[in-house]
Amino acid sequence: VRPAFQIVERCRKLAAHTDEPGFITRTFLSDAMRGVHADLRTWMQHAGMTVSIDAVGNIRGYYAGATADAPRLIIGSHLDTVPHAGAFDGILGVVLGVELVELLIGRRFHFAIEMVGFSEEEGVRFGVPFIGSRALIGDIDGTLAVLAGDAIRAYGLDPAKIPDARVTGPTLGYLEFHIEQGPVLESLNLSLGVVTAIAGQSRCDVRFEGHANHAGTMPMNLRHDALAGAAEWIGAVEREAVAGRDLVATVGRIDARPGAGNVIAGSAAMSLDVRHVDDAIRTGVVARLLDCARQIAARRGLTFTSELRLDQPAAPMDAGLTEVLAQAVRAGGHSDHRMASGAGHDAMIMAKQMPAAMLFLRSPGGISHHPDESVLAQDVAAALETGVHFLEQLERTHG
Amino acid sequence: VRPAFQIVERCRKLAAHTDEPGFITRTFLSDAMRGVHADLRTWMQHAGMTVSIDAVGNIRGYYAGATADAPRLIIGSHLDTVPHAGAFDGILGVVLGVELVELLIGRRFHFAIEMVGFSEEEGVRFGVPFIGSRALIGDIDGTLAVLAGDAIRAYGLDPAKIPDARVTGPTLGYLEFHIEQGPVLESLNLSLGVVTAIAGQSRCDVRFEGHANHAGTMPMNLRHDALAGAAEWIGAVEREAVAGRDLVATVGRIDARPGAGNVIAGSAAMSLDVRHVDDAIRTGVVARLLDCARQIAARRGLTFTSELRLDQPAAPMDAGLTEVLAQAVRAGGHSDHRMASGAGHDAMIMAKQMPAAMLFLRSPGGISHHPDESVLAQDVAAALETGVHFLEQLERTHG
User: Fold this and answer.
1) Which of A28, A234, A275, A289 to mutate: most B Cβ within 10 Å?
2) Contact B239, A247 (CB under 8 A)
């Protein structure tokens, strides 16, 4: 388990590169990302990789195959974080992949391995997630290039070269290691989970507008309190999700203005996040919730507006590559528990262009997106061993 | 109504003295206050008053009575504003009082009139409201003198002389003209309202703490969502206030952290503002709402904490002086509608030391603390006429 401890230590070291001292907060191409890139470059080179940073800020390490025209296996996860994050979400998958390649030194497979540390998965900086993986499959439109252009140039990169980030040439597929970020594996007393599909997501920005007024002089019956309307709707969102099956719906962000204790809120802007593996169920829930908001607004004399920010279909993983992964899990003596992912991952984007597979590691306490996020060294060792079996099985199959 | 138009014009003129160009923002003894004082000094002198500025920056105009030992009637309101204010909150009462005295020129009553333009009512600069009126009743402690000392000296005044600002000698009472800052008079189609009491206020800072977690991977039944708990409580606050009589309760500020759309909120901090003219009712409501929050927290596996920030008792106006004011309103042919004030005013402070009475003028649209704040010339004329009747009635009663 010595490599497993090194992986955990490296994740902790990368966590020190933060936009906000005292917390782990690292957004798309912030200054803190420079430190992460510098450390990873050293480790990747030590593992025998050739390192580059593409135009959207993905760090890419290339470990050559036995022949120059060898197809590529891509292994990756993300390096950015949510605000006040933990040390393992995303990062672990990158550091674990680098360690896996380091274990191989001297061995050449009939395929090359490209390790990718994606620069933007969470979507915190611009409200647009998956910029890193979308660049790899060529799914970056002009709008996004303009939106992120200044940040890209400030990092010393050239947005005009975004098309060059696209993966070309033959690939075997994509593999992602990631913490579960939920309580399911722990509740089953399992180290690992084989992901069968990633739930679809809807994200909306919504806003109630009323009238800001004096909290002492405006009688209750004459108010148009945007925050009171927002609170009623948050309750409705929760009830809808609780009533559903394998459905989650969340209001995580609220901004009520003007935001003074003695002034009735004139506006309340919020986020809505809805996820389900069945796209029809998910879009139906969103439609019902927006309709409910309109009814609340009408009854309270508020206006309601919403903007759909993300409508991401569910993404099934590749059946064949997932079977290789499940075999590798069993080869290590572990149970190949199959499960859906409620979180979005870069694997969902990569799956649009190539076979993708994903392995979950147990999250102690189910805690993620929080400073207490952790991982067990024994589970990291199990994942690493699974990785070795996976590569060997691929070599046997395609060699 | 020519005097009424002059009053409105003068308020608009004073509004041009601002700390922030493009807005009306004038805090305690800011440079902008010098222009206000210069204009008022001219107008007060023109009305036959002797003008001085006391050590906390109140401008005071003295209109002598028939005899040197005549008791004093104090008429006042405030000259400072909230940020991005309107032109009439406070200011109108001062300008209207000066006009009232100007109408009297040549007449001497058995009482003197002291007109006061209070320098700080809103509490914006130091977070401490009512500095001007508190100086008049001798309620300035050493802490406040230190807090405001630099500002006072910078204005060319001497904080050591704050005790001299205190009103000594016989007084008949205090009268304040003020816009309602609410929609009640407008909804009743009335120009004027006779204030019977200023509501007491409770202000609390409250906080729900739960567990921040991933919005996609944490099943609904295992969540400890601080914002969902906060939303449930905001609904309870609203229901409690709606069910009460002449009760207002407001959550105007909310801060949910970490505040990302894909993260369940781990904490939600809010303000609570409760106002009622009956202190027992008010404190009972606050206790019930905090108890309700604790129950919500217990049921949801959250923690709840609260801190009482203000516990301001209600201030009844003086029954005798209020009756004189009501008669004066009726003498002008207006309805003497009695009402409580949900907002705090200098009259609340002055009432601690002398009989106080207060007249509200209708606020079009109920709008205040906003650039759209306005007043109708016909209502200003009605208030001015009420002022004349009030003085004449006082003269008859005490003459």
Assistant:
1) A234
2) no
* B242 in contact with A, Cβ within 8 Å: yes
**Cβ pair A99, A39 in contact under 8 A:** no
- Distance of CA A82 to CAs A40, B227, B265, Å? 20, 18, 12
User: What is the sign, positive or negative, of the torsion defined by CA atoms of A166, A169, A173, A174?
Assistant: negative
Do B272 and A261 lie within an 8 Å CB cutoff?
yes
Tens of pLDDT, residue by residue over A28-70, are 999 999 999 999 999 999 999 999 999 999 999 999 999 999 9
Q: What tokens appear for B365 in the block? A: 């649209």
Tokens of B134: 């508190």
Strands A112-118 and A72-78: parallel
B308 interfaces chain A, CB cutoff of 8 Å: no
Task: Tell me the pTM.
Answer: 0.80
Averaged over A78-98, what is the pLDDT?
Answer: 97
What the block records as the tokens of A9 is 């230590």
| Cα dihedral value B16, B384, B393, B176, nearest 10 | -40
Interface predicted TM-score (ipTM) of this complex, two decimals: 0.85
- Subunit contact A250:B225, Cβ cutoff 8 A: yes
Compute the average pLDDT of residues B153-166.
Answer: 96
CB A332 within 8 A of CB A379: no
- Model confidence pLDDT, tens digit, residues B277-309: 999 999 999 999 999 999 999 999 999 999 999
CB A23 within 8 A of CB A83: yes
